[in-house]
Amino acid sequence: MIDLVGVGLNATDTLLLVSKYPALGRKIAFEQEILSPGGQVASALATCGKLGLRTKYIGAVGDDERGRIQMASLREAGMNLDDVEIRAGCPNQSAYIVIDQSTGERTIFWHRPDCLSIDPADITPEKIVGARMLHVDGHDTPAVARAARIARERGIPVSVDVDNVYPGFDQVLASVDYLVGSTEFPERWTGERDPFRALERIQNEYNMRVAAMTLGPVGALAREGGSGDPSGGCSLVSASRTHGGHDRQRRGAVDDAGDILRTQRRRRPRPRPQMA
Fold first, then answer.
1. What does residue 53 show for φ and ψ, rounded to 5 degrees?
2. Domains of the chain: which residue ranges?
3. Among 3, 75, 154, 201, which one has the highest count of C-beta atoms within 10 angstroms of its own C-beta?
């Protein structure tokens, strides 16, 4: 039995730690360079594995050196990799991340080749059924929408980590139970500047259990349940200012998902209605 199956991104990142982000056109020496496997979904699964959960990754990895580093990391994390595709002649997704140690904020330059795209036809029910929870991101929207729909039809809770607005992403949100968005996502999606009202609109429109957003070094804001008051049911979770501030917030959400899954080990998931 798999506790958490993930469909989405992996990446091999180069982290550059600097004392302070330089002004435009200036030079600064970096203090440390770290080559680190990452990616939204792959990182979440690795964290859940460390929490003792059984995980499975569905995605595509390049066959270059960065792809080999990524595969070694996934294997070390103990994930089920039966449905990972190694794409011949395709470089893995990569990113260069400049981390300002004075604030904990990061600036990301990333590239994902088209040859890593996931075909929705490759997302079949047998790859997902039996899992206690599904986690997705916003990339390869048709594929993750299909995965989320399969999970919803079978009563499997779905969580999403999203940082941007993608065409057709409403097809993903329609099957989501737990949303973790970037600081900008709720306003971009709803046009509502007030974060409480933006989360309320998203949660109510898609009937989510929890709608949350990261808030940079401040922490994260999550709305569970709610009431007539837009701020009802909202909780603010603080985050320490570290060189991986945003990752810490996402790990906090992953910790919460781990609590959900450990509870579900003792009881069956609540059935969800079939999609028309």
1. -90, 150
2. 4-10+39-92+114-176+239-264
3. 3
- Residues with Cβ within 8 Å of 207's Cβ and at least 6 positions away in sequence, in order, are none
Task: Report which DSSP code applies to 229.
Answer: S
Encode the chain (276 residues) as per-residue pLDDT tens digits.
Answer: 899 999 999 999 999 999 999 999 999 999 999 999 999 999 999 999 999 999 999 999 999 999 999 999 999 999 999 999 999 999 999 999 999 999 888 999 999 999 999 999 999 999 999 999 999 999 999 999 999 999 999 999 999 999 999 999 999 999 999 999 999 999 999 999 999 999 999 999 999 999 999 987 788 999 997 654 555 667 766 654 333 434 444 455 545 544 544 444 444 444 444 433
Cα–Cα dist 146/117, whole Å = 14
Give the burial class of 114: count Cβ atoms within 10 A of its Cβ; 0-12 exposed, 13-18 middle, 19 or more buried: exposed
Contact status, residue 41 vs residue 160, Cβ threshold 8 Å: no
CA 260 to chain centre: 16
**What is the SS3 assignment for 54-95?**
CEEEEEEEECCHHHHHHHHHHHHCCCECCCEEEECCCCCCEE
Strands 55-62 and 32-38: unpaired
Q: What global pTM score does this model have?
A: 0.82
Handedness of CA 130, 137, 162, 151 (dihedral sign): negative
CA end-to-end distance (rounded Å), the chain: 28
